[in-house]
Specification:
mainly alpha, 50 residues, 2 helices
Length: 50
C-alpha cells in the first residue's frame, strides 16, 4: 500500500488494533476507565434526578 508522509497506512492501523486487542494491560485500563465513567455518570444522573 502506498501512502504519503504523515498518513499511516491501513495495514499499520489494523496491525496496531490487533495488537492492542491482545494487550491485557490495555484491555484492563480501558475496562477500568469505562467503568469509572459509567459510575460517575450514574452518580451525576442520580444527583440531578435526570
Amino acid at each position: 500500500m502506498t501512502h504519503t508522509a504523515g498518513t499511516p497506512s491501513t495495514e499499520t492501523l489494523l496491525d496496531r488494533a490487533r495488537l492492542a486487542l491482545k494487550d491485557e494491560f490495555l484491555r484492563a485500563a480501558v475496562r477500568f476507565t469505562a467503568d469509572r465513567l459509567r459510575t460517575k455518570k450514574q452518580a451525576t444522573t442520580d444527583e440531578f434526578g435526570a
